[in-house]
Amino acid sequence: MALIDTTADLLNELKLHGLREALPRRLEELHAQHWSPSEFLNLCLEDERLHRQNARLARRLREASFPMPASLENLDFTVPRQLDRSLIREFQSGDFVRQGKNILIAGPTGVGKTHLACALGQTACRQGFSTLFFPINRLLEKFSLARTQGRSLHFLKKLTGVSVLILDDFGLRALTPQHMQDMYDLVDGRVESLTTILTTQLPEENWSEVLPDPILCDAITDRIVQKAIRLEMTGESYRKKRFQGGHTDPP
Fold first, then answer.
1. Using one digit for the tens of pLDDT, what is the confidence trace for 17-42?
2. CATH architecture assignment, domain 65-243
3. Which residues pair with 166 in a beta bridge?
4. Which segments of the chain have a pLDDT < 50?
5. Contact at 8 Å (CB) between 52 and 18?
């Protein structure tokens, strides 16, 4: 067995997969560039670090369960939707997560609220933050299922432990008393330092329509909006444009 094969086996055993993949190329470069041993070692270790960073990012993106690929860098500004370019650039740093800011994305159907929320979530993943995406209705169904299985506290702990939680399409229907309590427990567990991104068609002043208990409505609203960055999106529906043969690119 050639020495390079033995080395590859050792690297596999040590789980240095990035270094193993890069080693043949680095050996060629070593002879061509006349690197010193320390330079060669440093580059090999950088290869391994990059491999692990990419693997962690892929895992965070997979676990986030985004319904679509999206990035802040590729947002479409050709259609007026009242998006502030400078604010979008600020979001790219991920500081909104470090500061524990919520983001409230409001606007009519089809203008790209979900797409923007996914782009913010991808940014968080790239910055090293754990992220989860849930349509509100599916989240509440999971709460109900977890309760029947005696796992509601475990599910709540998962949701209050993630750095960024995206709640999509809040306000489509009125919440039951139990779901209002679930919603309160969720936002109360995240209020101190964690980021919640919420998309909705419903203005804040109308949240009582879907949160009929006035005390819980006030408590939930306060915990979401008190530290929220508000984004009010306008414009025509992208879905409508697609059906009419207009824009085909994601928003």
1. 877 787 788 877 877 888 888 888 88
2. 3-Layer(aba) Sandwich (3.40)
3. 133, 197
4. 1, 3, 247-251
5. yes
CA-closest candidate to residue 166, choices 138, 128, 207: 138
> Could you identify the residue written with the tokens 């969720």?
186
What are the start and end residues of each CATH 3.40.50.300 domain in the chain? 65-243
How confident is the model over 142-184, as pLDDT tens digits? 999 999 999 999 999 999 999 999 999 999 999 999 999 999 9
What residues are paired with 103 via a beta bridge?
Answer: 197, 229
The pLDDT value given to residue 248 = 43
Q: Which two tokens stand for residue 22?
A: 């890069």
- The half-sphere exposure of 163 on its side-chain side, counting CA atoms within 13 A, is 21
- Residue 70 carries which DSSP code? -
Q: Give the chain's count of helices (H) and strands (E).
A: 11, 5
Quick one: tokens of 178?
A: 């139990």
- Classify the C-alpha dihedral 167-184-91-93 as positive or negative: negative
Measured between alpha carbons, how far is residue 117 from residues 79, 88, 95, 218 in Å?
18, 12, 15, 24
| Residue 60: HSE in the Cβ half-sphere, 13 Å Cα cutoff | 22
Contact 130, 163 (CB under 8 A): yes
Indicate yes or no: pTM above 0.85: no
- Which pLDDT belongs to residue 1? 40
- For the beta carbon of residue 80, count every other beta carbon within 10 angstroms: 9
